Amino acid sequence: MLNLIILILYLQADRGVAAEKTWTVEVPESVTGLKSSCVIVPCRYDYPHQGESISSWKGRWYLASNDVYVYDQDSSTVDARYQTRTALVGELRENNCSLQITDVKKNDQGQYWFRIMMEGYNSYSYSEKKITISVKDEPDRPSISGVIKEVRSGEIVTVSCSASHSCPPHPPTITWSRDGRVTVQSEPLTGGQHKLTSSLSFNANASDHQQPITCSVQHHGGKKAINSVILKVTYAPVNVTISPREPSVLENGSISLSCLAEGNPEVDSYQWRNGSEPLSVQGKSLNLSSVTRRIHAITCVARNREGETASRPVRINVEYPPEISEQSFCTRGHSGTQCSCTVQSNPPSIVRWVWDHGENESPQIKNGTTVAMDLLPPNLHQAVCMASNKHGNAMKILYIKNDLLYVYVSVGAGCALILFLTVICLCRRKRRRQQQQNLERENSRKKCEKENYVYNSQVIKGGKPCCVVDEDLYGNEAMQDADDDGEIYANNCHGCGEDDDIYANC
User: Fold this and answer.
1) Alpha-carbon torsion (392, 398, 404, 405), positive or negative
2) Starting from the edge strand earliest in sequence, which strands make up the sheet with 181-188, in order?
3) What is the pLDDT, as a whole number, of residue 91?
4) Cα–Cα dist 60/173, whole Å
5) Fewer Cβ atoms within 10 A, N terminus or C terminus of the chain?
6) Distance CA 208, CA 205 (A)
């Protein structure tokens, strides 16, 4: 019995729930679309379903002003103004009746309503629940958020840019005027609108100060909208430079320099340095007097509460007239005379050579290294080096000196010549003496043969004497070693000659 009561109560409750379901539709009162873009009309319907078998679902949208078809499954029945531009973006069997209109036009503005047709059950027109579509010519300006009043250089900044739209299948594109890390997210709003948000994160620096951070939004169909925010950044001095950038001054003259710098907050103090040595000047300007060429590079250091920055060292171009060094010289060598003239000047001098009392001049030589050289004739006595620039002139007489190597070579050559001549004389003298000795021997031989003397009763065969005039003779039975005077030393010897002394045993 109790079970029966419970069953009856359950069936009554079930019929009550079924009775609560009616033909309803949920649509916003209005939707705004952007011209040339697309618009989605969100729609959700319901009906008093009681288990009937539905074989198919069909939906249709109408323009309320004249009840023409805006969308139908049979596209041939759709008004020409909407053909190929409308579609259902939801599943009817899942109670989704959302309408999409692409390439939105200005005359798409108006009221619309929906009708559902269910094969095997029923059909219903939700004409009492109309939705108004509005069309705007230009998109709304995007909104920017997340920027604080002031940031320090080096800190991470995140800026967000949001744009609303009514075309979720084709969301807009958001771009930034600055590089950084970008994240994008989307969320639905009421009234068929959606919001797309792009967030940009970056490290702020001095170049961002007072510069616009701009986001640009391009909607489907080509329409654009932009918005900007000015960022304020505090930073240590930057772009610290000395003016003039290439200072120039005549030696022993005066010059003024200025230190230029940018900073936020503004630069409040300056420090000047000559090389590594600090100067006592603390202001923005530096005045130097009696400047010499030995001055070092000048540096400026700018400071504010965020830090300090030094400029690039600037070297002052100190100009002065030419000065000819005592190291300049001329030397005479084997191939000619070589002169070197060392000139110190700024700007570089034009160097000119004159030699032998101005009788000859060399072409002008512009010498950036301050050393000019020329090869002159070997028989010079002196040369003059003249240098000039826009600040003055200088001249120096250079007397010719002999190159020691050249002297050594000359002396050596003279000695070699004398030795050669001496050798020739000695050879000639020896040859004349030899010829004289040969002549004397020949005369003695001829005289001996003529007189046919016989010594020691010994006669040579043929009747010829044993006289030998080519040699001095030493020996017992032979003639040996005759000197030039014809002296003969022997035990048993025959000799001849008018003046000869004869020493013998026989």
Assistant:
1) positive
2) 143-145, 156-165, 194-203, 181-188
3) 93
4) 32
5) N
6) 6
Nearest to 44 by CA among 101, 100, 85, 91: 91
State the residue for tokens 């006669």.
459
Q: Report the greatest alpha carbon distance in the chain.
A: 207
Beta strand residue intervals within 150-232, DSSP E: 151-152, 156-165, 173-176, 181-188, 194-203, 211-218, 224-231
User: pLDDT class for 482, splitting at 50, 70, 90?
Assistant: very low
Enumerate the β-bridge partners of residue 291.
none
Tens of pLDDT, residue by residue over 223-261, are 999 999 999 999 999 999 999 999 999 999 999 999 999
Query: What is the distance, to the nearest Å, from the Cα of residue 454 to the centroid of all Cα atoms in its chain?
Result: 117
Give Cα separations from 230 to 149, 196, 206, 208, 239 (angstroms).
9, 22, 13, 9, 21
Radius of gyration of the chain (CA): 64
Give residues with Cβ within 8 angstroms of 324, minimum separation 6.
341, 342, 343, 385, 387, 394, 395, 396
Q: Could you say which DSSP state residue 314 is in? A: B
Residue type, 357: H
Q: Hey, what amino acid is at 284? A: K
CA 360 distance to own-chain centroid? 49
